[in-house]
């Protein structure tokens, strides 16, 4: 009888335990993927993590060999969200804004009996606000959430890579209102890029649906902190790895390159230039945008010249309110382009963009820029003229130091010279007939012209 009772007890235990779900519990660090395996349809794996502050938690389950349920619970055991996949190899996950506290991710088999599965492996990654995060110097991981975002500097290039389950977030702070110019190039896959403000509100976004494309975002933003979120455009494509290059230019401290004048992609980082001087520079990619600034102290003509071009370029002139004043372009290398609008006293911006580079194979090109405008509030003084006779072969007098003296008779220009550091000038001319009226005026390097003075040849 005792033997029969013992046998029955063992049988009963085996029936009971066949219905029991076995749970394995572990802690999971922010941004560090873990490999796991469930060996029975009655098992489940539980991973716990603690948010040190309110913020985003991004949970990703990939490299699955079977179907899985994924649940997220708070510290009271209340379900926050859940998702599932019934197919091996399909990635799943969720992105939630959570309060500070402890949470658990629970993984359970799904649809195993229908698929004939008896076990399944997976990879789990949870990225959340933790007190300590060790960032990879090359990939900047973990940077999947706003709270783990990678801080970046204005005008600096950053190169990284991403997979279809990855999400890269970068952070920058602008110290005043102004433009933000964000570029993505050297893309080996399709990407989707979004800019958010500190309230997690979308500011703008853009995408490219194919490898080799380019993305640029130009927007006016207010002083504050912003986040650039980079996603694989085709999440269902199961991309294993794709690389990109990122550059963001915004109002902040930066170091200007003496040769290229970078960073000068925005109004706030524009390169100041002076009148009548040549500036040689280059665009290092088809997305490189160069901005120059000048201030004219009186109304008058502003002449903008772009030459020595090694590719196509466009040139725009804007006033201080962002209103377009003039524009021109060339699609051919070597062509000189010029425009000469009349402008009011004030500050203006010249924006140089690559033009027509797409599909041409051009990756960088140089150019030369010159702007001539009235940079002084007052014109040079009217030059004096010493006595002229029919035997004189030079015109002499006094004028404003550093200005250019132009000499005309009633028909044409007959000479030109410069005023010395002592304020004297001497311009060679051919002898003029008695009674000829000779006219002289001065012009400074900023384009300001004096009134004319005349004298009759004796």
UniProtKB/TrEMBL annotation:
Signal peptide: 1-23
Gene3D superfamilies: 2.60.120.380, Immunoglobulins
Domain annotation Bacterial Ig: ranges: 379-457
Taxonomy, superkingdom: Bacteria
Keywords from the UniProt entry: Signal
The keyword Signal is annotated on this UniProt entry: yes
Residue span(s) of domain Peptidase C-terminal archaeal/bacterial: 288-352
Keyword Signal: yes
Pfam families, A to Z: Big_6, PPC
Name under which the protein is recorded: Peptidase domain-containing protein
């Amino acid at each position: 009888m005792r033997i029969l009772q013992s046998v029955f007890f063992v049988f009963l235990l085996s029936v009971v335990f066949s219905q029991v779900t076995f749970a394995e519990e572990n802690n999971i660090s922010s941004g560090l993927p873990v490999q796991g395996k469930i060996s029975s349809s009655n098992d489940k794996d539980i991973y716990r993590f603690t948010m040190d502050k309110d913020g985003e938690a991004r949970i990703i389950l990939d490299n699955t060999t079977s179907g899985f349920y994924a649940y997220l619970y708070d510290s009271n055991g209340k379900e926050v969200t859940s998702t599932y996949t019934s197919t091996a190899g399909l990635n799943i996950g969720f992105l939630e804004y959570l309060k500070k506290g402890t949470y658990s991710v629970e993984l359970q088999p799904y649809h195993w009996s229908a698929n004939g599965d008896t076990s399944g492996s997976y990879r789990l990654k949870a990225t959340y606000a933790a007190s300590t995060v060790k960032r990879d110097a090359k990939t900047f991981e973990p940077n999947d959430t706003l709270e783990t975002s990678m801080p970046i500097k204005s005008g600096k290039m950053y190169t990284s890579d991403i997979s279809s389950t990855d999400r890269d977030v970068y952070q920058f702070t602008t110290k005043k209102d102004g433009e933000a110019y964000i570029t993505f190039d050297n893309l080996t896959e399709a990407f989707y890029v979004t800019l958010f403000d500190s309230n997690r509100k979308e500011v703008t976004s853009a995408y490219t649906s194919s490898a080799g494309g380019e993305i640029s975002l130009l927007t006016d933003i207010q002083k504050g902190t912003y986040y650039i979120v980079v996603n694989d455009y085709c999440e269902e494509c199961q991309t294993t790895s794709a690389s990109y290059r990122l550059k963001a230019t915004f109002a902040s401290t930066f170091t200007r390159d003496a040769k290229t004048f970078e960073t000068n992609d925005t109004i706030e980082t524009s390169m100041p230039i002076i009148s009548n001087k040549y500036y040689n520079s280059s665009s290092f990619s088809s997305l490189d945008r160069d901005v120059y600034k000048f201030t004219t102290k009186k109304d008058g003509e502003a002449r903008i010249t772009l030459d020595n071009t090694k590719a196509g370029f466009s040139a725009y002139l804007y006033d201080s309110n962002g209103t377009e004043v003039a524009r021109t372009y060339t699609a051919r290398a070597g062509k000189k382009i010029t425009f000469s609008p009349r402008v009011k006293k004030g500050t203006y911006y010249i924006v140089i963009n690559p033009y027509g580079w797409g599909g041409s194979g051009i990756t960088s090109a140089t150019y030369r820029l010159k702007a001539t405008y009235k940079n002084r509030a007052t014109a040079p003084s009217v030059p004096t003229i010493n006595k002229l006779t029919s035997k004189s072969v030079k015109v002499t007098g006094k004028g404003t130091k550093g200005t250019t003296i132009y000499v005309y008779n009633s028909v044409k220009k007959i000479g030109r010279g410069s005023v010395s550091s002592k304020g004297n000038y001497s311009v060679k001319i051919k002898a003029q007939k008695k009674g000829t009226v000779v006219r002289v005026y001065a012009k400074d390097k900023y384009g300001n012209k004096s009134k004319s003075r005349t004298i009759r040849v004796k």
